[in-house]
Fold this protein.
Amino acid sequence: MIAKTVRTCFPIAAGAVAEKAEEINKLNVFPVPDGDTGTNMSLTLQSVVKELSALPVDADMEAIAGAITHGSLMGARGNSGVITSQILRGVAEGLVGATEPATSAHIAAALRRAVKVAFQAVRKPVEGTILTVLRDISTKADECEKKHMTAEEALDAIVVEAYQSVARTPDLLPVLKENGVVDSGAFGFAIFLENFVAAALGRASNIEDFSATFDADADSAKAGALDRVKIEANDDWEGSEYRYCNEFLFKAEKHFDEDKVLQFLASMGDCELLVGAYPDYKVHVHSNTPNLVLEHMLQFGQVYEVFIHNMDLEVAERTAKIHADQEAAAEPAKPLGFVAVAAGSGEAEILKSLGVDVVVSGGQTMNPSTADLLDAVAKVNAEAVIILPNNGNIRMAAEAAANACEDKRVVVVPTKTVPQAFSALFAVMPDAGVDDVVEAMCDAYSEVRDGEVTRAVRDSSASDGSPIHSGDVMGIIAGSIDIVGSDVLQVTVDCINRMMDEEEGDSLTILAGEELSDDAFQEILDAIEEAQPDLEIDSHRGEQPLYPVIFSIE
């Protein structure tokens, strides 16, 4: 049960951090301005999710701990990511061998192990950071064990303590107080912990329905921490005396003195970390001479996945982003704004070019939640907002967001595909009222006939009853599986030919998915042009996952 809980809840909590990554990034002022903390923590966690997904369904806690340790080490980015990897390693190791059912003693033991591993990795721990929060929640867990609390009571208590500890970070680290923020890594850790616990205790079955562990009232620990999160532009901070963040993976080919390597890294700069165990390590240091760091480690083995970040530029970019946000917030609200959902980066770029203010990442297998859509609506500086869900599975969440929003009018134009959204946005009349715009958009997308090409993930049947085998290429027209074959090109052309036979159209909009190369896409376009010479083709890179091709005919 412990193993299953960890495996089930970890991806949910990792997803919550990914959703809040930009908010965490903006807090990042000190002591480790090496990249964006939220992004780095999210990348570290997603690397673990990938390793966990590769395990067999009956994997035990020892195998899961191995995946967490290896995945977090290999995927760790930035100082925050490396330290997070050691916290995860310690907790996972502490749970190996734990008997069922889980108790507050198991939780306390796992956190004690995390404190030991994480603090060993950092030569000069700084108070008011993620390490402080870890130590505080471990102390709280020890108290819960002594009071013989249940596992559920202990988990609730440590999440409360995590946010209270986050709120105290400005009192421990002067630069945080000077900038009016809490520590970014500590805040990200609390978000991960809160959402992990919420999932473990059954307060949400999946990320789409996440409800916070705490009510956002003035007396809650979470509200107290969030009250300290005041993001401001920091134009006069001088930054670290070292310019470059150096991080890379290292595979030793012979044994070496780890203490001496750490001493060398310290002589090159600061924030030095060497984590892992022979032969696999992660190296991190801030330095002005990254070449010397790499040359030194090459004496003992091979370096790979090398990342060198210019921290001066990153700080400047962060400040510029905050200035832009502040300027946008100061502008008067426009009459109408738009939120849309898209699965691919190309789709998102096109939607933004058509006037969408905020694009929410999501699609067939990663439906955004009501909260995600509400957050997006809140970012739009407009009196009214139209949501384009672009997927039938997202419509209910969009309508729930529209009903829940109290400070502005929100309306859903229930598009089922991104091509439908394109046509709907083209129909927007800038000076018209909201109701007239919605009517025009609905009329426009209702004229769109769309299709998509993907591969079957299991055996099934097409609309005519013919068999579909796992791995077959399917052509889906208006939600119906009408074409089945083995070749993406041929299935795409067959779909378009059938749609044109049913009703001729003038123009075709077609988007290439992330798995389709430019050359393969061009071959498809050439084949369509040969089959339908009178059809005007508007092609783009959509970069959507799972669907090599999506298209619409008007």
Notes: The radius of gyration is 26 Å. Confidence is low (pLDDT under 50) at residues 30-35, 204-219, 229-238. The CA atoms of residues 242 and 288 lie 5 Å apart. The first helix runs from residue 2 to 19.
